[in-house]
UniProtKB/TrEMBL annotation:
Cofactor(s) the record lists: FAD
This protein's encoding gene: kmo
Catalytic reactions on record: L-kynurenine + NADPH + O2 + H(+) = 3-hydroxy-L-kynurenine + NADP(+) + H2O
Name by which UniProt lists this protein: Kynurenine 3-monooxygenase
GO molecular function: FAD binding; kynurenine 3-monooxygenase activity
SUPFAM superfamilies listed in its UniProt record: FAD/NAD(P)-binding domain
Domain FAD-binding: 9-348
Keywords of the record: FAD, Flavoprotein, Membrane, Monooxygenase, NADP, Oxidoreductase, Pyridine nucleotide biosynthesis, Transmembrane, Transmembrane helix
GO biological process entries: anthranilate metabolic process; kynurenine metabolic process; L-tryptophan catabolic process; NAD+ biosynthetic process; quinolinate biosynthetic process
Length: 436
């Protein structure tokens, strides 16, 4: 493999991860060509079918900061300081994300974020963007990128950021498992009302309904994008506008009246799938080319912790870091990258699945709310020593893989302290009784 700068580097996919990586590599002086199957979304408009907005938090912001896009992205974002839970019966209630209520995750338009990254990539010397180029695979022995309706193109290093259904991953025939939830998702819109937001814009809204739920994130145009997460057969069951309206009036009564085009949206918008992809290894070393997967192509996760894009951005930062540490030695850098990231992406994949149960079910229970209040009280009391899982995932950049063990440790200490206090209280009471 040639020294850094000499090799032909291809990135597949000009999505969030592909663009960020192109900028990082371009800044290292590495010439890179990005192949994107879609036409340029800045000209053709954004593709529908993916989530319209995303929650970006500490990890994503830290990555964007590296390429000077943090502040610009925040200007295009709306902070959400907590969850607004809408139970079926009873009043909505606000649950702050952090103990002091000051921390927020940020609702940002996926299309705008992608546009900013594309603009930055395009203006980075050495980066070439090629749209409407569908990659079908990689011939690692010949060192060629295979394209639909075009001749193969030579490539020494291929970095595949082509999403959850990655063509590159499939062509490598890796050991992989794609685990689909029985739930799918569909997007609906709550438009502005009298020129303002129809719901509180400072919150991520959740309508927990047991096995299913709906969430809503605010947009800069004062609308909300709602996402229904339902078992797929439930979507199909509502097959007339009347059934849709009746269902929403019964199950989402406080928001049904805020969706004037509910039945149109419901009919038009597709049902997307939710998949967790686990595969290994993420790299393939052939005689002609070296390939590595990143972002959803390597580890798609379900969206219930709002971390897929944040995590994909972290991959890019890690690749860049590994190139620095190895002096630009691609094979060593990419094997270091996958070794460092795998445990982290496995950890967030599990936490994201677990958070689905929390969001659709637990958040509405009074016990859960009492536990949240107790957690925040502990966080205030033991600042820095007791930190909630949500805080560690969303408001820190500590590796995901360390979080479950840290939470277990904190809980053990807490249980021991509680037992200790109970024992001390017991002793105290016995002493008191003896004295009487
Ligand atoms: P993608 O964004 O999927 O980009 C892949 C790119 O590759 C696309 O541009 C695609 O057109 C291109 N491509 C695909 N195939 C080919 C091919 N054969 N040849 C050339 N190009 C190709 N994450 C968060 O952090 N916060 C959230 O709130 C959040 N909400 C979500 C809500 C939903 C409903 C879903 C489904 C996901 C959500 N995510 C969220 C996850 C996030 O969308 C993904 O993790 C993120 O987009 C991954 O980025 P990526 O660049 O790896 O892949």
């Amino acid at each position: 493999m040639a020294a850094e700068g000499g090799e032909r580097v291809a990135i597949v996919g000009a999505g969030l991860a592909g663009c960020l990586l192109a900028v990082l590599l371009g800044r290292r002086g590495i010439a890179v060509t990005v192949y994107e199957r879609r036409p340029d979304p800045r000209v053709a408009g954004a593709e529908r079918g993916r989530s319209i907005n995303l929650a970006v938090s500490a990890r994503g912001l830290a990555a964007l900061e590296q390429v000077g896009l943090r502040d610009q992205s925040l200007k295009q974002a709306l902070p959400m300081h907590g969850r607004m839970v809408h139970p079926l019966a009873g009043a909505q209630n606000f649950q702050p994300y952090s103990a002091g209520g000051e921390r927020a995750i940020n609702s940002i338009s996926r299309a705008e974020l992608n546009r900013s990254l594309l603009d930055t990539a395009e203006s980075t010397p050495g980066v070439t963007l090629r749209f409407s180029q569908r990659v079908t695979g990689v011939d690692v022995e010949a060192g060629a990128l295979l394209l639909e309706d075009a001749d193969p193109e030579p490539a020494d290093v291929v970095l595949a950021g082509d999403g959850a259904y990655s063509a590159v991953r499939r062509s490598l025939r890796l050991d992989e498992d794609a685990d689909f939830l029985e739930h799918g998702y569909k997007e609906l819109t709550v438009p502005p009302r009298d020129g303002g937001f129809a719901l509180d814009p400072d919150a991520l809204h959740i309508w927990p309904r047991g096995t299913s739920m709906m969430i809503a994130l605010p947009n800069l145009d004062r609308s909300f994008t709602c996402t229904l997460f339902w078992p797929k057969q439930d979507f199909a069951a509502l097959d007339t506008p009347e059934k849709v309206t009746a269902y929403f009036e019964r199950h989402y009564p406080d928001v049904a009246g805020l969706m004037p085009d509910l039945t149109g949206d419901y009919e038009r918008n597709p049902v997307g799938s939710l998949v967790t992809v686990r595969c290994w290894p993420w790299t393939r070393y052939g005689r002609g080319a070296l390939v590595a997967l990143l972002g959803d192509a390597a580890h798609a996760i379900v969206p219930f912790f709002g971390q897929g894009a944040n995590c994909a951005f972290e991959d890019c930062i890690e690749i860049d870091r590994c190139l620095t540490e190895t002096g630009g030695d691609w094979p060593r850098a990419l094997s270091l990258y996958q070794e460092r990231r795998k445990a982290n992406t496995d950890a967030i994949a599990e936490m994201a699945l677990d958070n689905f149960v929390e969001m659709r079910d637990r958040v509405s229970s009074p016990v859960y709310r009492a536990k949240q209040a107790a957690t925040h009280a502990l966080e205030r009391r033991l600042a820095g020593r007791y930190v909630s899982r949500y805080e560690l995932v969303s408001f820190s950049t500590i590796p995901y893989a360390r979080i479950p063990a840290r939470i277990r440790r904190q809980n053990r200490v807490l249980a021991a302290a509680a037992l200790g206090s109970a024992a001390a209280l017991g002793l105290g009471l016995r002493a008191l009784v003896r004295r009487r």
